[in-house]
Design a protein that fits this description.
single chain; 329 residues; alpha/beta; seven-stranded mixed beta sheet; three-stranded parallel beta sheet; 12 strands; binds nicotinamide-adenine-dinucleotide
Length: 329
Amino acid sequence: MRRSAAASHAIRSRRRLERDRVTVPGGARLLEGGAIAAEIRTAIAEDVATFTVGQGRAPGLRVVIVGKDAPSTVYLERILRGCDKVGIDAGFVELEGEATEAKVTATVRDLNDDPTVDGVIVQMPLPGTIRLRAVIDAIDPAKDIDGIHPLNAGLLRLGYDGFLPATAHAAVEILRRSGIEIEGRDAVVVGRSAVVGMPAAFLLVKEDATVTVCHRRTRDLAGHIRRADIVVVAAGRAGLVTGSMLKPGAVVVDVGINVVDGRIVGDVDFASASQVASAITPVPGGVGPLTNALLLTHLIRAAERQATDRQTGATAAQPGLPALSRGDR
Ligand code: NAD
């Protein structure tokens, strides 16, 4: 019997997943983001090369950074290095920590108007004197590759395709690419922030999970988590979720990044959780590497879409978005 190309590909992917399967002493499968990110970067490099030949320039990313904030700088360097590897023209615009809101929004608008810039990221956190909303609103939704503009947030909420916040995208993509079944399963997302928790919850709903969102006022966090097949934790609290809170066999995605005694740890107590879970992401090395790779995917998509829009005369306010389907809801 001859197999279709798609079936053969699915079988090859499954075999590769089996071959690459890494387990930790408790028996849980380790869901590592690095290998998936490397695959994604290979695909991005090809798309970047095609774009560069077609447009006569590399796709461009600019990161706006306001003031010197140590974690932001590390994050920024990582993004720039990643871009360099795949041929993206990345750079940053650094403003003084005392920069006014008007200065920051004007900088963003200049980047919106620059035809060689395809994606704009404003590094958070911003100084307290600047209204986050004013800056977010200033970003051209067509260049908003980290999905923070209300238009992109609205598209996600409505079930349409738009730019997704990269971290939330990575939290769900690591499940999909690891062959973890999402459809019909009970998922709990711990954290309801606009950039991580809520978009991750909407994405899981889109993948047909039944989703509960927990937050700092949730009364019985352990009770909710114990019912979940999939637990995504994005709370920013080291050790918040322990093995005793999990249903045996649950799949755990730890988005948290915390520094404890000079070490980076997640929101999940890995030692106890990996004894109970069937699969778990490590911190570092889980969601983080995938976040960076997906951000670059968003950038090349933004560049391609804007190139098409320029040809067809679509505007940023009325972008010529590709034919988007809103799935069965
Ligand atoms: P945030 O502070 O904006 O939101 C935290 C959320 O967690 C809130 O909704 C809050 O209600 C909830 N929460 C806090 N304490 C809780 C508790 N005890 N019980 C239940 N819920 C609780 O944070 P954020 O920006 O969403 O980031 C969340 C985590 O993800 C942080 O650790 C951050 O560093 C990390 N992060 C990781 C990446 C990555 O690439 N892996 C990217 C961005 C953020």
